[in-house]
Amino acid sequence: MKYNAGKYDIAVIGAGHAGCEAALASARMGMKTLLFSISLEAVANMPCNPHIGGSSKGHLVREIDCLGGEMGKNIDKTYTQLRMLNTSKGPAVYSLRAQADRKQYQSEMKHTLEKQENLFLKQAEIVDFTVENGKIKSLETNIGAIYEVDSIIVATGTYLKGKIFIGETSFESGPDGVFPANKLSEALKREGVELIRFKTGTPARINKNSIDFSKMEIQEGDKNPEAFSFDDEIDPNVEQLPCYLTYTNEKTHDIIRKNLHRSPLYGGEITGTGPRYCPSIEDKVVRFADKERHQIFVEPIGRNTNEMYIQGMSSSLPEDVQIAMYRTIPGLENAEFTRPAYAIEYDCINPSDLKLSLEYKKIDGLFFAGQTNGTSGYEEAACQGLIAGINASLKLKGKEPLILDRSQAYIGVLIDDIVTKGTNEPYRMMTSRAEYRLLLRQDNADIRLLEIGHSVGLVSDERYERFIYKRNKIEEEIKRVRNKTIKPTKEVNQFLVENNSSEISTGVKLADLVKRSELTYEILSKIDEDRPILEEQVQKEVGIELKYEGYIKLQAEQVEKFKKLEEKKLPQNINYEDIKGLRLEARQKLNKIRPNSVGQASRISGVSPADISVLLIYLETLKK
Amino acid sequence: METIAAISTATGNGGIGIIRMSGKNCFEILEKIFRTSKNNKLNIEKIKGYTIQYGYIINNETNEIIDEVLVSFFKNPKSYTRENMCEINSHGGMVVEKRILEQCLKNGAILAEPGEFTKRAFLNGRIDLSQAESIIDIINSKTEKEAKASINQLQGYLSENISSIRHELLDIMADIEASIDYPEYDIEEVTNKKAMTLLENVKNELEQLRESFNTGKILKDGIKTAIIGRPNAGKSSLLNTILKEERAIVSDIEGTTRDTIEEFVTIKGIPLKLVDTAGIRNTQDKIEGIGVEKALKVADDADLILAIFDNTKELNEEDIKILDLIKNKNSIILLNKIDLENSKLEKEVRISNLGKDIVKISAKNRDGIEELYKEIEKMFNIKEIDIDNGKLITNIRHKNQIECGIKSIIEAINAINLSLPIDIISIYIKQTLEDLGKITGENVTEDIISEIFSKFCLGK
């Protein structure tokens, strides 16, 4: 029996990392929000690796936090280890990474959802939805509840027609033994949404009683770790759990080679496209045949569990083969499996069917976010959820969507990439995808984005004021250092010599000394007697801004150029077929992607510089 | 708007050529490169529209006169583009036109895109809507033409070089980026020293490539070609065969060519300045010694080296020195005396490993000389360039991109010298790739990412 379950503003389907952010943003922006999950035990689950952050993903988490999202705060409460990576490789690529206590992360997030005003968390599978006059009207659960809604955010992750493969065995399933969502795909197809098939995989979990850690290298967390949220402080007394490193060897590879015929990947049963950057161990052995060993990281899943995650050993081979090959690895000779490795195949959409706001082009009020958009990774999912939640809310408020561009945030790069170019494998964020990464640092995420977070209503006035205070401090201090002259006194030159720097014979600006490669803003405090007492975050920011000033400025100039074409907006109602002079391929692509600006158009593959000239001329004719 | 410049006269070697400039700095740029007949500078203040000035275009770095010209001035808004414009009427011929255009570009103009003058005329309201469509047609047809020319160009020498340079850069980028994006994996970190060696190499290669664009110089002076080889390898015989006359002394006694000899010759339309050198050898003989030193020097600044080896003898120390010398040079390896039995070098890995073109000849019997000519033709691709302006423009565009690439690589090298962190260095390496990518039209980010995953084994 169907029944009418009431009217809401926005419904979010799926309570993974994208869904949680989407629902929180929407509820916090005043929308009456539903959040559905097939199982409430699966809220904010980490079905794969138990860590958050890392290169470029750490950037995403800080950006999420500064826009008023939850991921950063949630991991700050539930980490088991924190490390700042890449500290020797330059300010643009410092990356914070946390090991998470998975269960605690989930229950913390679930509780945050439960406490949130306007947010209604429900256990149900969504099986259908209706569209009226091109607009979202309602959705329906598996037990017949019909909710009337204005917007839907689909964040179904790997659940849509999820199918798990372990060797010769395969079965319909979501991750971690949760039911898959089998019916929603049909409804989406009926409404004209094109679905594609992607795959990913995860390694086995092993009981740590059965692991001999003495044969592995230990990897500890940082002594004085930073938090993800600029608002949080890390208690240095919280115990951090170590990770371990070990390696595969020829014996492992032999077992894999001998059993390749039993892998569904090589047998042809799996048709979905897997990512290049998450190859299964059998992929690695086949593709890098001459590599004698591969790194294996052993990571704890939480504080109150013995389960360890074995990064580097994702596989779709049968369980008996898995056990045999895991046991060839030093330290894992007696490994006891708690869960086997598996590959999972799922339905996702073609992200180039979306607008930059993450709304589906052809159905008003239908948004998509996360892995279902063809991305991979918790952080990638979370940031899309946040943006979809914000934009679904802004739309109902009659406001313009929030679109971050490539010079503002990694989030902007990610969304622009998938929407403009589409993706033929699960998309992972990487620092090399960002053109202006010297500007998109993780240390200045607040300077880039907090104002935006505040203006959409997700960052409180109180936090915003703290930020303004911090930003003023940074600006004042940079100004002071630029104006301050250091005189060539005996003490100064002695200090310089001690630090392997050359002496000065006339007065030199302090800012110029900071730029010397052997010196830092921090070290120079010794000859900078009127330096004010400043918070650590302020000091770090001042140091980076001054040291890399010239390079930062150069990228800022490139951004100016980039913006010129971004600011030339293309009306959404253009029929590109009518523009004479566009090449056929360009017409088709432009009609499909419907870019927001000439800049976005120029990034579509198949649109040439000559086509861009034609568009510019066309825009001028529109003005006249 | 930025100032644009282009050669606007039609294809081929006409009697007169016109180079056009348009944009806000048009007169300032002209001021730098124009001298009146009395060697005075142009007075920008006094320029009047619809007037013509007689004078010279000079290379303002060397003060060398490039051509005698007439310049017509058009002042904003009374010009085709409604911007300040000038048209430089030079003597025809693509070499002169190209050199004038290069001066404009060097002093701040940018190369006009296809149809850009007309596009500006439209954008500035000079021509009306009904004409807009025809502009689009012009842009398309010109683009197509250039694209075709570009493809032709790219099939030769340039493309091979650019793609090998790009590959070197992608390789190191993959190392750097993989170590950044996967910090926990044991990827060998790129040391500054390693990066420096590679970048210096790339810089040299790009500079050589840039030089190869100096077709003007080449057409005027000929391609400076050094024939080197150990004594009695057959240098003079080769020279004679090419010249078809006995000019150098040929004998069987080692060391009879005492000094270098220069000869001009045109092979398949390519002008070569052939230089025969004394055999490279360690010698106590003073007169011979002078010859050897000079030979090494000549070889060092040659545009092309023909390295000749005696196929009937094993490689000796001198041969190895020669192989070393030509490693990073435009060179062709010749195995001489194939008419004689007793081949020693055909399977020599030290030769084949260099990756240079190898031609087997008998200088005496003229065997293999045609193959040699073909190699030279392929290498310099000069016939192509000579044919029409479309290709010439493509050529300038490519050269500009290579110049940009050189600037970026110098920035990367500077960043290493300043001990800046690897992420800043990689920004400039990436920029170099972008610059070169504009020639070959490849997507740099995607290429880097593919390279990372084809090279390293990463992930869960």
Radius of gyration of chain A: 26 Å
The percent range for strand residues of chain B is: 15-25%
Rg of chain B over CA atoms, rounded to whole Å, is 26 Å
Helical segment tally of chain B? 16
The CATH homologous superfamily of the largest domain in chain B is called P-loop containing nucleotide triphosphate hydrolases
Question: How many domain modules of chain B?
Answer: 3
Summarize model confidence as the mean pLDDT of chain A.
Answer: 94
CATH-defined topology of the largest domain in chain B: Rossmann fold
CATH architecture descriptor text of the domain at 205-342 in chain A: Beta Barrel
Structural class of chain A: alpha+beta
CATH class of the largest domain in chain B: Alpha Beta
Q: How do the strands of the widest beta sheet of chain B line up side by side?
A: 3-4-5-6-2-1-7
Strand content of chain A: 15-25%
Q: Largest interface, with Cβ-Cβ < 8 Å?
A: A-B, 57 and 46 residues
In terms of quaternary structure, what is this? heterodimer
Determine the mean pLDDT of chain B.
78
Tell me the span between the first and last alpha carbons of chain A: 59 Å
Percent of residues of chain A in helical segments? 25-40%
- Here the CATH topology of the domain at 205-342 in chain A equals Elongation Factor Tu (Ef-tu), domain 3
The chain-level structural class of chain B is: alpha/beta
Describe it for me?
The complex is a heterodimer of chains A (624) and B (460). Chain A has 624 residues and is an alpha+beta fold. Among the domains of chain A are: 205-342, Elongation Factor Tu (Ef-tu), domain 3, CATH 2.40.30; 475-557, Arc Repressor Mutant, subunit A; 568-623, GidA associated domain, C-terminal subdomain (DNA polymerase, domain 1, Orthogonal Bundle). Chain A has 20 helices and 22 strands. In chain A, the strands form 5 sheets. In chain A, strands 1, 2, 6, 7, 8, 9 and 20 form a 7-stranded mixed beta sheet that branches. A 6-stranded antiparallel beta sheet of chain A has the order 14-15-16-17-13-18, with no helix packed on it. In chain A, strands 11-10-19-12 form a 4-stranded antiparallel beta sheet. In chain A, helix 2 packs parallel to helix 10. Chain B has 3 domains: 4-127, Probable tRNA modification gtpase trme, domain 1 (Gyrase A, domain 2, 2-Layer Sandwich), CATH 3.30.1360; 157-212 and 387-455, tRNA modification GTPase MnmE domain 2 (Four Helix Bundle (Hemerythrin (Met), subunit A), Up-down Bundle), CATH 1.20.120.430; 218-365, P-loop containing nucleotide triphosphate hydrolases (Rossmann fold), CATH 3.40.50. In chain B, helix 5 (157-181) packs antiparallel against helix 15, helix 6 (192-212) runs antiparallel to helix 14 (389-417) and helix 14 packs antiparallel against helix 15. The model of chain B is unreliable at 245-258, 286-290 and 382-392 (pLDDT under 50). At the A-B interface, helix 20 of A face helix 3, helix 4, helix 5, helix 15 and helix 16 of B.
